[in-house]
Amino acid sequence: MSRLRKYKGFRILYSTLHLIWAYIQKLYKKFIEVIFLPYRIIRYRTAYFFDTNFIVLNTSEINDARLTKLRTISRKYFITESVDTESSGMLSSGKYSKRLKSPTQTVGFYDLYHKDLSICPVYYNFLGSIHNPASIFSDSFFAELLAAKIALGGKSQELIRLNNKTMDLIAKSLRSDTHLYHGPKPDLLKKLDAIKLTGLKKKRKAMRRKNVNYFNDMRSLSLSLVYALLHKENVKFVTADQDFVYFFFELLHAISQQIVFNEIALNTLGKEGVKKVFLGSKEAIFISKNLLMNKIENFMNGLFYGYRGFNSSKFSIYYWDQAEQRYYQFSFVINKAVRQLFLHAHGSLECYFSKNNEFGAFIAYRYWWPPSTVHNKNFVKILPLRKNIINWESKKVPSIVHENLCKYRRLDRQNDTRNFLGFKTNINL
After folding, report:
1. In the chain, how long is the greatest CA-to-CA distance?
2. Contact 79, 55 (CB under 8 A)
3. Distance CA 246, CA 368 (A)
4. Dihedral pair phi/psi, residue 33, rounded to 5°
5. Is the pLDDT of residue 427 over 60?
6. pTM score
7. Residue 146 has pLDDT above 60, yes or no
8. What ranges do the domains of the chain cover?
């Protein structure tokens, strides 16, 4: 009994010291960020991208405090081409007035494409990572799988039943006040879980109805992130739509998984293995489930909390909560290494005109989840595949040529996102 008490006492002491150390690290990080804030402001200019809800105001509404409480350190105000089109249509209807009086510049896909010709698959990979992420450790993995089946034409009653049941289970988990592994949820996590549940439901409706505004939101977030990566500036995407908070975390989780897959695969294959993949070899590799989960978590923690954030630019969602009349900011760090990894994150996409011979960008990864008991349920099977298109250099062509020959641009014009699904699945249900 005395040994058991000593063991329990040791565990309590260890947990207490661990919490104290975590708190000290948090205070230290805050201190360093405050000290280096003037340096970051001088070194990295700040650009603001505004959502439609900051550009227009319904004439029947009373203006709120979102602009009064918005503190900007520059007048680099931007809107994406999607926001420009949407807001112009609303203002011309006569039912809306202009909310933001300051002038804004419009940024479109080709403004960034001509700065870096290799961003086409990167931009559409970001869009797909929001639209239908196949993030294996996400609690919405199977919901996204079923959504992909439905998007590809699945209409069976069994598929619909499974979809509804999966959404009910996710709703139960996200609405719970306690986490399955980590105990009671803090208030911010409860809020984020509520946002995620709402976002999942809205996404499903938008996919069924091909909602143009939903696609425009994905375009705007993807475009503003590409801008941040290319211009090496702090970028704040300012919005009153909570969907962007949901999109932000979905995108980061999916891209982090892709980057970790690529890192582990390249290290496992080595130079000779990469050459074999380049020549068309199809040989699966197996990654420990726990190792993979730890690496993804560590990479994402680095994005949010580390990687010398005080000395790097940041990309942020600056979300105005209408009910609370306050802003929430969610950011991740973009240092030199992160910028390089994100700008080579092509996923499974390929473009006739975009360079993809570096950092494994010419490799697509097919993977299976959950782990198969045929092999070992503790390992994830990943099959590296050579892409059909490999370019050593990006090819500069007129915009109209790229617009007509690039399949992603053609599908984009039709609001057809089936090529941007994270799941490559046949429809058996």
Report:
1. 79
2. yes
3. 25
4. -65, -40
5. no
6. 0.87
7. yes
8. 44-420
